[in-house]
Design a protein that fits this description.
homodimer; 214 residues; alpha+beta; Jelly Rolls; Arc Repressor Mutant, subunit A; 4-stranded antiparallel sheet; 26% strand; DNA-binding
Chain lengths: 214, 214
Amino acid sequence: MQNFSQKKIDDLHIEVMSNCVNVKKKSFQTGEYILSFGLRQKMIGLVESGKADIVRVDVDGNESVIKTLTPGSIFNDAFSCYTTNSVFVISRTITEIYFIDYPQILTNCLMGCKYHSMMVQMIVHLFTENSISLNEKIEILSYSKIRERILAFLHIGIGNNETNCYKLPFSISEFAEFLCVDRSALMRELKKMEEENIIKRENKTIILLDVLHY
Amino acid sequence: MQNFSQKKIDDLHIEVMSNCVNVKKKSFQTGEYILSFGLRQKMIGLVESGKADIVRVDVDGNESVIKTLTPGSIFNDAFSCYTTNSVFVISRTITEIYFIDYPQILTNCLMGCKYHSMMVQMIVHLFTENSISLNEKIEILSYSKIRERILAFLHIGIGNNETNCYKLPFSISEFAEFLCVDRSALMRELKKMEEENIIKRENKTIILLDVLHY
DNA sequence: CTGGTTCTGTTGCAATTGCAACTTTTTTAC
DNA sequence: GTAAAAAAGTTGCAATTGCAACAGAACCAG
């Protein structure tokens, strides 16, 4: 999730890579659809600036944020294939994204380019990070009680940080969506937890009080 | 999940690969721990025969089967890193597994071996399949009602098959574990769905009656 | 075949959650 | 600055679920 340290790929690397494979940069407005993965486009997206969400939409139209993308984040089409529902990437601010041609990395330029190895490592990094995020989400959703999900989310989010603070990267409504629980039920539980001195909340910042911070 | 057609890697490939990277074959007894991923071992496991489960264990000791591994299945350490809980691979029958040294694929034998490209594609395949399974699990868990989870599970499992039958690859207890719901509550819901003619159940085979099979 | 263990099936009950329907506050757009 | 829209916050109520505690069936191992 957010605590996973992104391996930043700087402009120089992008420039070098663009000699090796097809790289395009595009800008998106707030709310614009960056990708509908139903198309199964084989490419890697790399966020340079802005913010975007990977959102799953089920058959009933319910949305669930799978992951929030920030500068340095990397994503691809592996999120959606073979599932019945759709996954979209939606720009939440003005967002700039590099698109790197995916099959090219494996076919073209085969073994000849000295940056090829770096590209392969980038792919592995992408998939590993993807895998980690998905596992974190499963860990959270495997709890049946809202309180447990909140705590799991906070523990992952706070991770090895020195503080017990966590600033939500999204609104409370989106938080409920992420946890796959009803918004009002989430509010209710957050209130209860505050009354029981388990957390303290101020706007979008949640402080986990130490007693249960095992 | 089970309907995802595995790209079988036959013995010849394994033999060729073993010239390029370090490959070891090991046998495990029923119930034996194949891997505790807490160790963060960088390697790929490839099931030759038998059956094993990837199991997540949370801090309270609750177990949840992430995925069932059958011959041809491939797995690695990307399942667990950076999460607070542990992931294990447990052998359910006598199981034979190839272990392929992971970093070697990317560092040793760099660009020299003509099977290198195949290895890279294997890695991509592994991660993609991993990603698909995890997404399917998230899709299932994103529903809050047991009935919805059962139906999502069946839809994924049946997929594009011609039949409406699905044979559970595990016991009802394990099914409840997989869906992250209480076993007795699952029983109750299965019974209700049978009474409402939504499904028909016989032992471990579930038939989805066509009305709701959109 | 016998005792033990695991799985299946059932039920009552309390707790939690989703849902609907609100009000209030904050943010956005013109 | 003001109207409109989105988000936050509340609450009552019904439905669903988890939990505990059973009993019977199936499946071992000696």
